[in-house]
Amino acid sequence: MQMGSKDLFIKKFSQLPEINTSAHGRVNLIGEHTDYNNGFVLPTLIPQKINVSVRRRNDKKILGFSKDFGFGESVLDSQTDGTWIDFIKGAITLINKEGANLLGIDIAVTSDVPIASGLSSSAALEVSSLKALSSLANLDLDEIKIAKLGQKIEHEFIGTNCGIMDQLVSARAEFGEILFIDCESLNSKHLNFFTNHTFLIFHSGNKRKLSTSEYNSRKNETEIASSLLKVSSLRHANINQINNIKDKIIRKRAKHIISENQRVLKGVKDLEENNAINFGKLMYESHNSMANDYEISSTELNKLVESAKVAGATGARLTGAGFGGCVVVLVPKSKIEIISKSVIKKCPKSFLVTKL
Ligand code: GLA
Description:
It is built from ten helices and twelve strands. By secondary structure, it is α+β, with helices and mostly antiparallel strands. The strands form three sheets. A five-stranded mixed sheet has the order 1-3-6-4-5, with helices on both faces. A four-stranded antiparallel sheet has the order 10-11-9-12.
C-alpha cells in the first residue's frame, strides 16, 4: 500500500503535521467545456484522491515532498516557476487575501489520481490544500468560496483559464453521487447512478498534450461566438442561431457548446428515469461533437471509444479537457469483464483506472 501523506510528512520533516486533508478527483459523465460558458455539467467523484499534510513555518519558505510531483522548494511572494509548488504558493497567497496571515509551510502530498489525464488531479490538489490552509488560519470558507479560490489558482498561478466544474465538484460532492451543476447559478442537484449499468474509466496511455494553450484558445473562440450572437454566454444561445456565424471554426465551437448543454439536460432526465440506453447514445453524440466540432480528441481517444462501442458498450466519450487522458464508458454491469478485456486488447496502451 502507498504511504499516506502523514507518514510521508513525518519521514521527510521529522515532525508531525498540524493538519491532514484530502480531496477526490472527478470524472465528468457529460457536459464538456460547457462550464466556462455558464452551462451544465454532470460530474461525479472517483475513488482516487489527493492527501495533503501541512505544518506552518516561521519563515516564508515553502517545502514540498510528493512521490508523484517530486521535491519542490520556493519562497512565498516569489515568481511562479512552473512546478507543482505554484499551486501551493497560489493557495497560501489567496488564503492570505481572505484574511489569514500565513507565512511558509512544509507540505507532503500523496496521490493516486492519475496526473494530466482529465480526472482533475489539479483541482484535488487545490481543494485539499485550500481546506488545510483555511482550517489552520481558522477561516470558515464555504465550498463555493473554496472552489472559486481553486479556480483562481489556475487563472493566476498556473495560466489555465478554466471553468468552475472541477473545483466545485471536488469541494461539494459526496462520494457515490452524481452532481448536476448549473455553472451560472452554481446550484446543483444530486442524482443516483443507473441500477443495471456502471461507468468504467479507461486511460488512453497518453497524457494530455498542449492542454493549456489549446484550452485557452477554445475559451476565446466561444467568447467570440457569444459576442457575435449578442448573448452573455453560449448558455443563452440556441442551435438555430449558429447559422448567423460566418466563421466556420467559431460556428463549430458554438455548435458543440450549445448541443452539449442540451445533451446534459437530456442526460439528467435519463438518469432520473434510469434510462441508461438513452444516456449512452448521448455519450456517443457528445464524443463525436468533441472530436469533430470542438476538435479536442485524439487518435487514441477515438480508438478507445470505437473499441468500446464494438465491444458492446452502451455509451463512451472522452472526459475532461481532452487532447489525451481518459474516456468514460457506460456498460451493463453484466458485461464489465468482457468489455474491459476487449477494449484493452484493441488498445494495448490503455488501462482501466476505475469502475464506479
Ligand atoms: C478542465 C477544466 C474544467 C472544464 C473541463 C472540460 O477540466 O478545468 O473547468 O472546462 O476541462 O469540461
